[in-house]
Design goal:
This protein has ten helices and eleven strands. With 292 residues, the chain is α/β, with parallel strands linked by helices. The protein has two domains: 87 residues, Rossmann fold, CATH 3.40.50; 134 residues, Rossmann fold. It starts with a strand and ends with a helix. The mean pLDDT is 95.
Amino acid sequence: MKLIDGKEAAAKLQKTIAAEVAKMIDNDLKAPHLVAILVGDEPASQTYVNAKEKASRAVGITSSVYRLSEKTTENELLNLVDFLNQDEEVDGFIVQLPLPKHIQVERILNRIDYRKDVDGFHPMNIGKMVLGEEALLPATPQGILYLLEYYKIETKGKNVVVLGRSNIVGTPISILLSRKAKLGDATVTLCHSRTENIAQITKSADIIIAAIGQAEFLKADMVKEGVVVIDVGIHRIEDLKLEKGYRLIGDVDFKGVSKKASFITPVPGGVGPMTIAALLKNTLLAAKKRGQ
């Protein structure tokens, strides 16, 4: 079993991004500017936004954060989105999810200028992705592709099973891996909460992308020997033995599945760092596109 080190792969990608940003600055162009909007004080979201800020600074990308009260209204958030859409100093921005229940997520995401949509959630970017056209790809699926490429994991002709059909991970990665491309040409089965006999399906998979949102859902008896496993899930479980009082686990029973896998991502330290690196890559691409 080989551990897929997301931190190592992300560091390599960020080094490339930093070199391109430095070249822009050397040519008297402004550094790309990434903005994050954080509504409320959800701890996981705060940690994630802080990590994005740190990673942005490390590659020379300007980073700003709007920290809004959980009581922020939908119209107030829409007004901020409109402002950032018009701000020539901003190349890309994200609205950190989840949002408070009184705010319609789709309405907010659809309002973002797709050219600044560095999370890759806007219908225009999703549509272009489906058609195989140039687009800002969703960050987590893009990060998964970078991991597969970095570890030279072949996808052509492989049987891939995706667990979870969200618009953020499951559906886009199933499309990306099935299309005709260097990191594609796979036969993809998309499973979800209504899929029957999931274990029978996963046992035939060469590659499994687990993004079903259930802690340790994928067990050792559900996979074959030599499978490649990408675990997108992250769950905080109480563990009073640890000083911080909790531990993080994924959608995969790592202890059991790792004994049969040829490659597997850890949680944390697998997909997460690559999601942030892909976000920075999208910000760089958006800045270059806007500068043309």
